[in-house]
Amino acid sequence: MSVSSSKTPCTSNDCKNVGILKCEGCSQTFCRIHVIEHRDFLSHQLDGVVLEHDTLQQMVMEQENKENNYHSLFKQIDKWEQDSIIKIQQTANEVRQEIETLIGSQREHISKELHDLAKQLRKAREDDDFIETDLRIWTDRLEKLKHEVH
Questions:
Q1: So which domain of life are we looking at (predicted)?
Q2: Among the residues of the chain, which ranges form H helices?
């Protein structure tokens, strides 16, 4: 029976030593010296991953701070919105009052004109003192007042 003793060499470049440990992650076999180097290499890679994690976490925290600033902006926008609504409502109320005043003035004007015209018509009838020209003037005044009403 022949006994074959196959020793696996270290997979590091130019190393002639026998590999004593196989890495489960990369499936390479290393000698005692290169196992330590390989672990140091993996440790440095882990440091890079941790650094990336910490950087990302810092970015998330900064984003949260920005979002807190956004809340302040949103509150300012809400206040501006409410102030604008109040101003619009005040302006609308003022315009309504002005329109009511104008309508009241127009109504008073038309009522006064109708009252004056009624007095003239009564007097003309009582005195039996009117001619075609007077009728045309009174009719024109009535037409003008009708247009003002509409």
A1: Eukaryota
A2: 32-127, 132-149
